[in-house]
Design brief:
The protein is α+β, with helices and mostly antiparallel strands. It has helices at residues 2-13, 19-35, 40-46, and strands at residues 52-55, 58-62, 68-72, 86-93, 98-104, 109-115, 121-124, 129-130, 136-139, 151-158, 161-169, 175-180, 186-190, 195-201, 204-208. The protein has a 4-stranded antiparallel sheet with strand order 4-5-6-7. Strands 8-9-10-11 form a 4-stranded antiparallel sheet. It starts with a helix and ends in a 13-residue tail after the last strand.
Amino acid sequence: MRALRVAVLALAAMAVAAPSVAQRVDAAFQLCMVGGTCDLEAKAIAEAKGRARREGGRLEITLANGTLVAFDDDPPSGDADLEIALWSYLGNWGELGSHVILQQRYESDECTLVSDATGRRTEIHDLPVPSVDGSYFATVPLLIEGDGGERAQVWSRTRGGYRMEAEIPSDGCAWEWATWTPRGRLRLTCASGGDSCYERRWFRWRKTGCDGPPFQLPTQR
């Protein structure tokens, strides 16, 4: 189920992305729906044109300036396997100017953004959902056994990296999805149903009305 959620979130995030990225994620989502497998990394590496590769438990990424960045999976260690971290490459998301890497643990997943220009790393608590113009992205924490989902985060792009600009508490329920409306407003969807929208006014993210249709989960075609 986590792999399916990753694919669906990535598909939602890529609604405003370059076609090649959107096509990759869409294809992976269809594999999830039909075959129950989500090998996002294999497709992302294939589209990286030699700038990302996997050698066993080692993931290597070549930045725009030629610098090599590596992520090593933790080796199996018996009962401690519950604590090991595995890294998966999700692609070079042009609208963010960064490579997106998923860090998977037994009951928690996080993402690392690596700036393609500077190599600067930014740790975030779930997949980034970019705004239409790429100036911002939002994240919603993973929902596991009722833990998490209480606060969404909004990040803004800075020179060579990102800065968390706001945390938005839930309206009495756990946030499950983040998308952006046609007017650039952040739309947060409750796990129990219902949307709330926010826009940046006077240097703060404030609740406002929603424009555009409600967010709908992609369905099998």
